[in-house]
Amino acid sequence: MAGQASKQIDSKTLWGGKISPFSTSYGKLMMWFFLVSDALTFSGLLIAYGFTRHDYLGSWPIGEETFHSLPMLEGNYPLIYVALMTFILIISSVTMVLAVEAGHRMDKKSVTKWMIATIIGGAFFVSSQAWEWKHFIHGSNFGKVELADGSLAIVKGEFGDIENFTITQAGTHHQVGDVVTEDLKHEYTHAVAEGHVHNGMITLHDGSIAKISKQPNTDMTLIVKEYGGKYSIGAEITGAEAVDMYEEAVNSGEENRIIYGANMKQNEYGPQQYGQFFFFITGFHGFHVLSGVVINFIILLGVISGLYHKRGHYEMVEKGGLYWHFVDLVWVFVFTFFYLV
Amino acid sequence: MERDDVIEYSLDAHHSEEQGVILRKTIWKVTLILTIITAVEVTLGAFIKQSSDYWQIIKWLFIILTLVKAAYIVLSFMHLGEERKGLRYVILVPYFIFALYIIFILLYEGSAIAETLTQHAS
Q1: Rounded to an integer, what distance in angstroms lies between the CA atom of residue B48 and that of residue A274?
Q2: Contacts of B105 in chain A (CB under 8 A)
Q3: What are A2-32's pLDDT values in tens digits?
Q4: Residues 220-259, chain A: which have Cβ within 8 Å of B?
Q5: For A155-174, what is each residue's pLDDT tens digit?
Q6: A165 in Cβ contact with A211 (< 8 Å)
Q7: Which candidate, A189, A173, A174, places its Cα nearest to that of A141?
Q8: What is the pLDDT of residue B4?
Q9: Mean pLDDT of A173-200
Q10: Domain locations in chain A?
Q11: Is a pLDDT exceeding 90 seen at residue A333?
Q12: What is the arithmetic mean of pLDDT over B44-53?
């Protein structure tokens, strides 16, 4: 209920001093001004993202091709995880607005309950984002491949299991005839990225050379993202041809033919800037959420101790709420422009 | 001592139990709307490829749905709709002027750069 804000007051009284012309307290007004400037910061980031994306046209990654994994599940679930994150944040925004509403009725018990729910929602969101970052940095089974003609392509398909490495030439750690069965995937992707796999033989980190025993990859599709001379951007290569071209890159023994995951210099999803924008925009937003959780927790302590009740109003919850809704608002835009469009 | 320069505006926002019931109903209604919009966005995003003929329409639909969601959050959850007109304009107007201008100028510039780069490459 808006109360004072919707009351008819003639402008002479309103702007004549003594009262706030906006019928709002100083604290709430300053929170709004902070949010306006923060919103401009986020627009700056998202618009810079749009600018870079327009630079690259077709080679820019597509949301549903990049984000299609769920924790602990194999398979293709485009955008489901981000949708879940979005939903969690919206719900925690709802519990926040319910806390504000309870505050307007001076219902301390309800405010406490909804504040705790909001904090849990926020913590869930930050943890989800941590998992997504881990997954983004770690990368997929296949990585991004540079084909023989120099085109760059992203890869979809079923990754054949690695069974073991049989040592054929001893290094500092392994003897000839040893069969390595541990940490295979990790060792394999590192060796492929560094060009230490050559014609089915892998050079392990201790210098020993081993024969790779691996199930073949199946159902492969290569989607060309960067022009190299032979294929147009967006071209899809499937079937045995795709498997052969991918295997050629794996067994070439050349460095960086296949890139896994992401860091600040390169990533398997698209241009270098894509990874940088991902880290900066979602990181900056995630940091806002983290601060929001901390702020909400401090406010929760004030609610429990009865500080605001003694004051006669729960405006602090309202101010914290404004910030929290803003964080949700930013995510709505990040969700659309980073993941959907 | 009572100070006459401190006005507790937040006391005006207090309401009764009955009004609370109505307000909570509105909150849940907005929640439902936001959830449905998100579900629609994800379904469209997952099933319609960017190479599809409908992509342009879908893209604009996404942007419109996003603005609808944003409007619900700002006007309903942040109660900006209930604030004084002056405050509403102070917050929204500068934002729209700067944001719309910079969106237009930078996306236009970005496309122009892409065009120049492809001309150089071929």
Answers
A1: 22
A2: none
A3: 566 777 788 888 888 778 888 888 899 999 9
A4: 227, 234
A5: 988 888 999 999 999 888 88
A6: yes
A7: A189
A8: 65
A9: 89
A10: 42-139+274-340, 144-262
A11: yes
A12: 82
Check A44 against B23: CB less than 8 A apart. Answer: no
Express as a percent the part of chain B with pLDDT over 90. Answer: 43
Using CA atoms, how far apart are residues B7 and B5, in angstroms rounded to an integer?
6
pTM score of the predicted model: 0.88
From B58's Cα to the closest Cα of chain A, the distance in A is 9
Which one-letter amino acid corresponds to residue A111? V
Angle, CA B64 vertex, CA B63 and CA B65 arms, to 5° = 90
A 10 A CB-CB count for A106 gives 14
Q: How far apart are CA A63 and CA A297, in angstroms?
A: 34
Alpha-carbon distance of A11 to A138, in angstroms, equals: 60
CA–CA gap between residue B83 and residue A22 (Å, rounded): 8
* CA dist A237 → A67, A159, A231 (Å): 21, 17, 9
Query: Exposed, middle or buried by CB within 10 Å (0-12, 13-18, 19+), for A38?
Result: middle
User: Can you tell me the distance from the alpha carbon of A293 to that of A118, in angstroms, rounded to the nearest whole number?
Assistant: 8
3-state secondary structure of B12: helix
Does the distance separating the beta carbons of A329 and B73 come in below 8 Å?
A: yes
Neighbours of A153 (CB within 10 A): 24
Under 8 Å between Cβ of A270 and A60 = yes
* CB A95 within 8 Å of CB A118: yes
The answer to whether residues A234 and A223 touch, using CB atoms and an 8 Å cutoff, is yes
pLDDT score, position B117: 81
Q: Which of A59, A97, A154, A223 to probe by mutation at the B interface, max B CB count within 10 Å?
A: A97
What are the chain B neighbours of A56 within 8 Å (beta carbons)? 114
Distances (CA, A) of A318 to A298, A322, B76: 14, 6, 13
Please state whether beta strands A144-146 and A152-158 pair in parallel, antiparallel, or not at all (unpaired): antiparallel
User: What pLDDT does residue B121 have?
Assistant: 63
B53: exposed, middle or buried (Cβ count in 10 Å: 0-12, 13-18, 19+)? exposed
DSSP per-residue codes, A268-309: SSS-HHHHHHIIIIIHHHHHHHHHHHHHHHHHHHHHHHTHHH
A333: contact with B, CB 8 A cutoff: yes
Mean pLDDT across chain A, nearest whole number? 90
**Domain ranges within chain B, ordered by starting residue:** 19-82, 84-122
Which of B8, B24, B63 has its CB closest to that of A101?
B24
Domain A42-139+274-340 part of CATH 1.20.1250.10: no
Q: What angle do CA A245, A248, A249 make, to 5 degrees?
A: 95
